[in-house]
Amino acid sequence: MKPTSGVPGRLGAAFGRRLAAILARLFWSVRRYGTENLPESGPVILAPNHTGFLDAPLLMATCPRPIHTLTKQELFRGPIGWVLRSVGQIPLDRDEPGRNLLEAGLGVLEDDRVLVVFPEGTRGAGDFSQMRTGLVWFALRSGAPVVPVVIGGTGSRGRTVAGLPRPRAKLDVVFGAPITLPDAAGRRTKSALEAMTTQLRDVMLAHRESAYTLLRNNRKK
Asked: How far apart are CA 135 and CA 197, in angstroms?
């Protein structure tokens, strides 16, 4: 399907993925798990936890497919903003997401690509405790499966640029099994979105627990 106007292009995201992968290998020790859970084609929504500034670039580097991330609009300034737009990322007003944002996100999914939506909307404890309804909204409108992702190691030194992981630090990305939400045609009210967000949160918490168990066991080897 041809993407609508305002949807970022494919080439920039593909280039960003290659560049991010090179930088990640140069500076850190990165491991990824569960990549077989990501559908090889069709629309997909990645739903990662968010504890550090490096989460989005690391996900770009480790995802088997190019991604388009809803990124807070405050970063789209100066040289960094130019880079973000060039690699196909989408500016997000977290308080008042406008029609252009929604159309761009849906356009990515309608073009059978991968959209990243941080469920909590901002960096925090990474425990999915403050999930917003935007993730469910995109999933219901597009019919795309949601793949939960747990990122480990990026927030160990703080949640700002100054807290970037030390060189050669171990960073982990764990992709979970895809979740397809039930058809909710006619049930997209605020209360319905909140109820489904709570249900989705339970599944994502289960993935978080299993991911941390996997990482703990692997670090003992």
From this structure: 8
The model's pLDDT over 30-86, given as tens digits with 9 standing for 90+, comes to: 999 999 999 999 999 999 998 888 999 999 999 999 999 998 888 888 898 899 999
The 10 Å Cβ neighbour count of residue 35 is 13
Asked if the structure places residue 3 within a domain, the reply is: no
- pTM here is 0.90
Phi then psi for residue 59, to 5 deg, are: -65, -40
In a domain, 50, yes or no: yes
Q: How far apart are CA 114 and CA 25, in angstroms?
A: 22
In a domain, residue 30? The reply is yes
Per the domain annotation, does 95 fall within a domain? Answer: yes
CA distance 113 to 122: 23
The whole-angstrom separation of Cα 202 and Cα 8 is: 32
CATH at 125:
3.40.1130.10
Contact status, residue 200 vs residue 181, Cβ threshold 8 Å: yes
Domain count, the chain: 1
Q: Which two tokens stand for residue 32?
A: 């990824």
